[in-house]
Amino acid sequence: MTSVPLPSHPVLTAEEVKALESALLGGDEKREWRAMQAAGAGVADAVGRDFAEAGELPAAARLLVLAGKGNNAGDALIAARALLAARPAATADVLFAFGPRKLGPLAARAWRGLAESARGRVRSVAPGEVAAAYDIAIDGIFGFQYRPPLPPEAVTAIAAGAAAAVRFRAAVDLPSGLGEAGAFRADFTYATGSVKTDLLGCRHAGRPRYLDLGFFAGEPTGRPRQGDRILLASILTPLAGLRPADADKRAQGHLVIVGGSGGFPGAILMTTLAALQSGAGLVTACVPRRLIPAYAARAPEAMWVGLPETASGSLAPSGRAQVLKAAERATAVVMGPGMGKDRAAHALLRAVIPRLQVPFVMDADSLQPDLVRLGKAPRILTPHAGELKRIAEGSGLRPLARELPAVVVAKGPVSRVTDGGAVYHSFFGGPVLGRGGSGDLLAGLTGGLLAQTPVDPLGAACRAVVWHGLAADHLARARGQTAVAIPQLLEFLAAALRTPAPCPPS
Q1: Rounded CA separation 217/13 (Å)
Q2: Residue 445, exposed/middle/buried by CB under 10 A (0-12, 13-18, 19+)?
Q3: The pLDDT value given to residue 219
């Protein structure tokens, strides 16, 4: 495997965050204020983009800010100022959990800036004065230094906000109270500057987002072997750039896909369509013979190989020679999508896997405890939670990856990728991916990227997960989360590459 570093930042404990911020800011008020302004502006920008998944943010939007005493309150107040500045008819209510007199110096400065910049559109409210409905609520009561239990004043403020009808609830850094009773329940949580360990798996955080403020600009390069890391959108930069002027299809990788059955005819087609958009130069799909006429009409640019079928429409073991012949010309293989649980199809894979000389991706029903342990070629596994439990046989994610060895993509609301060393988390994507066929598209992207970089399975898996998630973000912002079909994700793969990732503030 390659040692090329992946664009990512570490997940830090509270003590590590304190040490980092002390080293970067050094208690200098000017530096701290610049960092707070950058954090608040970043939250406002991210909220504006993510709100699109819930519909259009009205010009006369109503905001509610729950403010504590310290820097999180300042971040939230600056975010509110930026949101109001972009919408002259918008208004904001600010509920100070501990009263405005308890604000720290920088948070007080942020409050004065908000009140002065939007005169007549901002008011300080008591818990009993919170309105019945808001478009956005921003939680800035506590940050990473919070320690339970929640003070009564915070419980009252959070409860007042929870009683209102709010279309979009955002938390700065961490939801106040984390997961305890009475905690703020966010739709999105925006980690500013760094991601804190408490955010991973926090049940009240909603969807986590990471706002890079440039804190890790001087971090040493090199692939870390342990710990948790957050993948950056810049991992896709090489895919978005120009290709060599003399590029040839044979130099862009050749992917072979094996799967499909009469019971699940759509899955393997979606995998093939995604692979065709992955940048791979050649795609060959080995599928049951009866499916080829319809598939070839849908994707004529792929090369279709008809395999023998069982009476039930599954792949027959007698297709082994055809698959191995196709794999001889390949730089990577994907197997499993739409294959089903038929024993004959599993027997085919059992005969093929030990003979593969190129890296491969295992997805869907190919993820069986015995099959994933066959052969010696490098592999990527793409299980969802149930499949991971099945193949891990009591082991954890990182131990499983080490044992096989393999790159394992644990699909979920926050997908995790590891080769047994560091665990890379992707904060891209969302509920729009919670549909049948989402994994089939990811398998095609993963295989296509692996075919282009067969020496780097970990990099291919991480790039595929981020690309898949970013395309889902674009789809949801354009069309919402409900009335969409998963193949529409393919329409947004190009947009995910061509939209530059936000640059950290200088």
Answers
A1: 19
A2: buried
A3: 75
Separation between Cα atoms, residue 119 and residue 503, nearest integer Å: 31
Q: For residue 247, what pLDDT is reported? A: 87
CA dist., res. 289 & res. 307, Å (int): 5
Three-state DSSP class for residue 484: coil
- pTM of the full structure: 0.96
Q: Which of 420, 427, 362 is nearest to 9 (CA)?
A: 427
Are 73 and 103 contacting, i.e. CB atoms less than 8 angstroms apart? yes
Q: What is the pLDDT of residue 500?
A: 56
Taking 70 as the pLDDT cut, the residues of the chain under it are 1-4, 220-225, 500-506
pLDDT tens, 120-149?
999 999 999 999 999 999 999 999 989 999
> Which residues fall within 8 angstroms of residue 112, CB to CB, at 6 or more apart?
none
In eight-state DSSP terms, residue 397 is H
Question: How much is the pLDDT for 1?
Answer: 40
Distance in angstroms (rounded) separating the CA atoms of residues 443 and 1: 20
Q: Which pLDDT value is given to residue 222?
A: 58
Amino acid at 386: G
- CA nearest to 77, candidates 50, 104, 56, 49: 104
Quick one: tokens of 341? 């649980």
d(CA 202, CA 324): 45
Q: How far apart are CA 363 and CA 335, in angstroms?
A: 6
Please give the DSSP secondary-structure letter assigned to residue 337: T
Count of positions (residues) in the chain: 506
Computed over its alpha carbons, how large is the radius of gyration of the chain?
25
Omega before 149 within 30 of 0, i.e. cis = yes
Task: Give Cα separations from 447 to 55, 256, 272, 304 (angstroms).
Answer: 34, 8, 10, 17
How many other CB atoms are there within 10 angstroms of residue 397's CB atom? 18
Supply 412's token pair.
Answer: 């979920």
**Do residues 414 and 427 make contact, with C-beta atoms less than 8 angstroms apart?**
yes
**CA separation, residue 464 to residues 157, 201, 206, 252 (Å):** 41, 22, 23, 16
CA 411 vs. chain centroid, Å, equals: 10
Question: What does the H/E/C string look like for 217-280?
Answer: CCCCCCCCCCCEEEECHHHHHHHHCCCCCCCCHHHHCEEEEECCCCCCHHHHHHHHHHHHCCCC
Nearest-10 crossing angle of helices 71-85, 105-117: 20
Contacts of 427 (CB under 8 A, 6+ apart): 207, 208, 209, 210, 230, 231, 414, 469
Which element (helix H / strand E) includes 196? strand 195-196
- Token representation of residue 436: 């049948």
Given a contact cutoff of 8 angstroms between Cβ atoms, the answer to whether 72 and 172 are in contact is yes
Question: CA of 187: how far to CAs of 54, 398, 431, 453, in Å?
Answer: 11, 29, 11, 36
Number of Cβ within 10 Å of residue 462's Cβ equals 29
